[in-house]
Amino acid sequence: MQNETQTMAPRLPLIGDVAPNFTATTTNGTVNFPKDYAGKWIILFSHPNDFTPVCTTEFIAFENIINELRTLNTEIIGLSIGANPSHLAWFDAIEKISINGKRVKISFPLIDDLSMNVARLYGMIHPNMSTTHAVRAVFIIDPHGIIRTILYYPASTGRNFDEIKRILVALQTTDSFGVSTPANWEPGKPVIIGAPTTYDQMQKRLTSKKTDQYVKAWFLTFKKLNSETIMEKLNKKTKKKK
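^ thats the sequence. predicted structure below, dont judge the formating
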């Protein structure tokens, strides 16, 4: 029986897949996803319910960094298994909350997904947690509509927005400079260049005199890449899109 159930279960979107498309009503009007965001990076996220304390802090946190994300050619869109009237009432309540003397107005759209169609399409419903509420999912989708990162959090744990920004910058750095990023990487720290694929390349790497590279082993080479260079290139790409 278990094997039959697993066989019948819909395939969830994975990293490297084309983001599933859908049309939905949001607090900012109708969206055709991801078509309406063509050429931009997208952060699609879900949350368990409206008027919940952890979700409220997350919405405020997202709004606080939205301008930073837009300088990185990135837009945000949220999802809740609820209807627009509830979403709008919650937004109105959030705007009255002051944290550290600051209030925010939620500007990004929240999807009306009372039917749970979009949540199911993106694997946001985890039955062992709830069959009626979504988990805290995050999908980072690139300008070509390809899923590049998937994160899941339980209802009790708020997301780390510094980490979400870090992942976004890391992905864009990889695409722009043809490098990889090591553990705990942040802009300004050394990046990793690809390993040699032939014996001759390996020998050249081991005897390299390049001052901006640090060869730790034939397969592990770090390279200097300062944060100013990264952000200048990423921001320049955003300006070209406008």
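Residues 53-70 form the longest helix (18 residues).
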